[in-house]
Amino acid sequence: MLSIVLSGGVTGIEGYMVRVETDVTRGLPAFVTVGLGDSAVREGRDRVASAIRNAGFRFPMDRITVNLAPAGVRKEGARFDLPIALGLLAATGQIDPGPLERMVVVGELALDGSTRPVGGVLPVALTAEREGVSAIMVPTGNAGEASALGSLRVLPVAGLGSAARVLSGGEPDSCSSVPCAAVSDVARYDLSEVKGQRFAKRALEIAAAGNHNLLMIGPPGAGKTMLARRLPTILPPLTRGESVIATAIHSVSGLLSPGSGLLERRPFRAPHHAISGPGMIGGGRVPQPGEVSLAHAGVLFLDELPEFRRDVLEALRQPLEDGYVTIARSMMTVRIPASFALIASMNPCPCGHLGDPTRKCLCTPAAVRRYRLKLSGPLLDRIDIRVPVAAPGFKELRGGGDEPESEAVRRRVEAAREMQRDRYGDLGDVWWNAGVPVRILVERVRPAREATEIAGAAMDRLGLSVRAYHRLLRVARTIADLAGDETTLAPHVLEALQYRGCGQDGRS
Questions:
Q1: What CATH architecture applies to the domain 2-176?
Q2: DSSP state letters, 245-281
Q3: Taking the model in full, what pTM does it have?
Q4: Portions of the chain given CATH number 3.30.230.10
Q5: 455, 479 in Cβ contact below 8 A?
Q6: Cα Rg for the chain, rounded, in angstroms?
Q7: pLDDT, tens only, 275-331
Q8: Is 91 helix (H, G, I), strand (E, B) or coil?
Q9: What is the topology classification, in CATH, of domain 186-425?
Q10: How many CA atoms, within 13 angstroms, populate the side-chain half-sphere of residue 448?
């Protein structure tokens, strides 16, 4: 007998439909899986056989052939265990195959017949929705993720026996779905905890309002990491579209905890400087998201920026410019979203004390130059805001009570972003000053004449590239949005010029 069960696979973060065709015929006992499956798929036959027996069903001692179509696309992981087991039970007449025609099934099986959650359920659910499928059967640990769309009937099952009961008209297993906020611990921090640093806080607010990239340069202990970790606290909440994409990326990477729904907080990723290129950008035989994609719709923090490998830093150019990563392999090319706000920090020199009035710098001029040349001009050109961060004095640490809280700053950021949404809302998902195409920026952001003259003079005198000139205008427009001004004025451009300081070549 032949049975067909719909399932789904994932390439990059995009789902695709898979037909699990199971044929059981008389002959010498054999269990063959075809359709370009990896080792985890091929090993699934042993899990399926044990799960069927331990769940109280009969495993046929016949020739079993399972085909995963389309055969030309490589299949990965244990997500096909449950559909293969149900297809086998349907082909041997132990369950009714009718209900399987109208649903997608994904899930891993344990040897005792229970289900285990798998990654990538949300992309599969999105594909099922586009294909007009009305229901999806998943392990209970994936139910919150699958039900986030709200348009599919989600059937959570705790095991193979539960799946058979549901197909016979029974009720699915109960489960709890909680919003996923585990990707960042933003709730622990508040901007009011940072004493002093008014110039750096202002730069942080501008970066949040326009989604600009930010580089902080200062000695050890000045508070650069404290500031960076508080950037997510002043960012507006995720939109639904951003949340769906960010959740899909984390789902494919296996970073969602069981029972999680859509992400509610913006991701904050802080990889170590020893990270490899594929770890940062993504890669693998079957491409997987890297840190830049895991930070999508959130913040990527690179502490001690010059300590990262040069090839890793140069690989950031495409995502910083385009908002996505393209990974090419011999059998496939995938494009993974990577639109994030980069915030980085570095010391002014290898020892960290250059310019410090209280501690002597021990670095030679040659060592300082080598240290700064670790960052290329094209990379620095893509960083909109560069600010010095000095160590606070004792009076600043003691004083206080008047430091702005994150909530108050976030309200100003949200108001500025609302102006940007009104200006660029018809462009789709990218509607902030730092990300809109240059053509749209030139058409819709028309600075006052005096502001244009100041920006042009700065371009000539400071040797700014065309990209740097446009980024100057983007920052000035964000400053105007924070002020509630419809026109970019001279004071806005002058303030924006302060954040392109640290030397004419972009270095401190």
A1: 2-Layer Sandwich (3.30)
A2: HHHHHHHHTT-SPTTEEEE-S--EE---TT--HHHHH
A3: 0.90
A4: 2-176
A5: no
A6: 27
A7: 999 999 998 888 899 999 999 999 999 999 999 999 999 999 999 988 999 998 877
A8: helix
A9: Rossmann fold (3.40.50)
A10: 14
